[in-house]
Amino acid sequence: MAENKISNLLGSYSSIRKLGNLYDSYGKPDDNAIGNSPALNPKAPTRTSGELFSAARIRQTTVPERFEIICYVCQYAFNIQGRIVRTMCPKCHNMLLCENHAISGSYAGILKTIGNIEVKAGSFLDNAELFARNITLKGNAENATLRATEQLELCSYSKFNLERITFKDLVIGTDIACSFTKHVFCNNLATDGTLYGTFYCNGSVKIGPHGSITGELKARRLIVEDGGGLEGTIEIIEER
Question: Which of 144, 135, 138 is nearest to 107 (CA)?
């Protein structure tokens, strides 16, 4: 029994010696150090930044973008988060299509989607009706009705009827001159063409190097690039 106690005692003493040697190899911690930082302990082994990042992955969480959708059946407005996909209107329960379309040549009919529609150059809309989130017009739509629930872009050399277009944001290309007889209410307006009329913008107005606005303008923000022109009454709405 005495031999076992001596053996155990020697074993414990050997373990303590090993721990002491290990402690000495790392060095005593600095009394002024905060925490147990290897950088403040010159004898302790250090890790490179690459080793630190490889040891622990950093994950980022991004909040999905929100989109306002207007039902093309009942005109009810609602929001969806993430990608715009085929979805059901929460009010009328109709399934809303989300496909993007490109029209070339002659088109006569009704086309509705919560996606985007592009009318290519050289195309002709014959008494057509287009409803989409974003519409880009490069062809002839003088005999068509266009409703963009977000942005309507009227590109250079496109043709249209001002009485038959509806939009939230309006983008005007070069070589386009528009004279609006009715007041224009929109969120954002960007023009590189020539505009006449009265414009009330809840967001920003940007006049490009080839653009000009003549008439009355109210907006929260105004940007006029070199070469752009602005003539008339201007009022900047204060941010609330």
Answer: 144
- How far apart CA 178 and CA 171 sit, in angstroms, is 12
Give the span between the Cα atoms of 129 and 108, in whole angstroms.
8
Total-model pTM: 0.73
Token couple for 119? 């009318």
Under a CB-based contact definition with an 8 Å cutoff, are residues 154 and 138 in contact?
A: no
Torsion over CA: 160, 163, 167, 171 (sign): positive
Positive/negative CA dihedral, 73, 125, 184, 187: positive
Tens digits of residue pLDDT in 7-31: 444 454 455 455 455 444 444 545 4
d(CA 34, CA 112): 65
- DSSP secondary structure string for all residues of 192-239: SSEEEEEEEESSEEEE-TT-EEEEEEEESEEEE-TT-EEEEEEEEPPP
Interval 151-177: pLDDT, tens: 999 999 999 999 999 999 999 999 999
| Nearest-angstrom CA–CA distance, 192 and 44 | 65
CB contact at 8 A, 156 and 175: yes
How would you label 166-195 residue by residue, b for 16+ Cβ within 10 Å and e otherwise? ebbbbbbbeebebeeeeebebebbbbbbbb
